[in-house]
Amino acid sequence: MSFKIALIQMHIVGGNKRQNLNHVEDLIAQAVDHGAELILLPELMDLGWTHPSCLTEAEPIPDGEPAARLIHVAGRHKVFICAGLSERDGNAVYNSAIIIHPDGRVLTKHRKLNELVIGHPYYGQGNRLGVVSTELGDLGLMICADGFAKDSVISRALGYMGADVILCPSAWAVAADHDNLKSPYGDLWRKAFIPVAKEFSMWIIAVSNVGAMTAGPWAGRKCIGSSLVIGPTGEEIVQGPYGCEAETILYVDIKPTKRPARGDGWSTYWNEQSTV
Predict the structure, then answer these.
(1) Residues 102 and 79 sit within 8 Å (Cβ to Cβ)
(2) Cα 112 from chain centroid?
């Protein structure tokens, strides 16, 4: 089957949880009116990536306000939602993401594995990956820099786990003086996504927020969108607009490619050794 995904390249105000949640509810309603069946939201859309407020304002999943509101919205609109959220678990804070079913269940939660060094003072270490089977296909979940871990090990692992589609909430930031005409943004992600998408015949879909980073180690930088969809033959389907003010919603029709079960690694190895 095919479905329509909405990539909400939203403006995030660092540290302003209430404003971000109110704003995203309006954007989700707009996307649903345009026929979206799955909503993809950016990394840490409640507080912003590496904003120091996460240390005091992060809330549990699923019972904290950000997750609870998104669960309610998913149920009200009967839509799948994938969102990046800060997560409080005891004394630890995590850079997390969840996939919510239209019936209000949290189907899976991922804690970022490949956090940049500057994020280490804010977020704990994830320790697992997951792929969840849904009516839309088998959905894998990773967060931003997970996508360019060495040898694309995280996205490839999700491929071996059977993902038809990888969803990737992100926060792509550049220096304040970055010139997109001289150095167009996006090649880092194309180089990371395209080979894996082709290898596993799967979709890789990443959405980034827009807006200035006002606090934390990258204060003064800007998040610039440029959200990206790579199809199962490695083709670029769409790239979102670039810029600190480039809030938009991108709509893409997704048709997951059902591929033969993998797991033939040993037989492949044996055959290769036999021909030496």
Answers:
(1) yes
(2) 10
